[in-house]
Amino acid sequence: MIVHFICRGNAFRSIIAEAYLNSLGVADVTVLSSGTVAEAHRARNLPHYEQTLALLARHGLRDFAKPGYGDQLTQQRLAQADIPVCMNQRVYDDSRQLVTFPASVRIWSVADVGEPGRVSADSSERDRFRVEALAEIVGHVDQLVADLPVRR
């Protein structure tokens, strides 16, 4: 089974979800991640990706992250997935301009730093928002794993 996490830049939320699910070592589950504007914002997102890696390292998850970032969402990448997961409604709406989803798509409600509910000019508050997002993603991934069909 392949789970594909989708955010906007593939530098924060989807990277965290992918790393955390990888860390769980769920049998017969492969994880992918991509972003709706990843290719266009790749260079601009490098500092965000580096902050994501630091956050993952602080939580013992760095070794489970993929070696890069900024993978662009395409229909070909999506076609590999059994369960596509959009990080929020904005991501889903943006994605629909690029791909056609199967009925199995899931839409979470994890706001990115800088989106409504997580807007701040203060770096310490942005750090807190990153930690909050990680906790939300962990909760969603744990529920996703609990919902996976049991393979016999």
Description:
With 152 residues, this protein is of the alpha/beta class. It contains five helices and four strands, in the order βαβααβαβα. Strand 1, helix 1 and strand 2 form a beta-alpha-beta unit. Helix 1 packs across helix 5. The longest helix has 25 residues. The radius of gyration is 14 Å and the shape is globular.
Span between termini: 13 Å
Structural class: alpha/beta
Classify the fold: give the CATH topology: Rossmann fold
Rough outline: globular
Q: Strand order of the main beta sheet, please?
A: 2-1-3-4
Query: What is the mean predicted local confidence, pLDDT?
Result: 95
CATH class reads Alpha Beta
CATH homologous group name: Response regulator
How many separate domains? Answer: 1
Q: Classify the helix fraction into a percent range.
A: 40-55%
Main beta sheet: 4 strands, parallel
- Structure annotation, total helices: 5
In percent, how much strand structure appears in the residues? 5-15%
Walk me through the topology:
Elements: E1 2-7, H1 13-24, E2 30-35, H2 42-58, H3 75-79, E3 83-86, H4 89-95, E4 106-107, H5 123-147
At a glance:
The protein is of the alpha/beta class. Helices cover 43% and strands 12% of the residues.
List keywords for this structure.
152 residues, alpha/beta
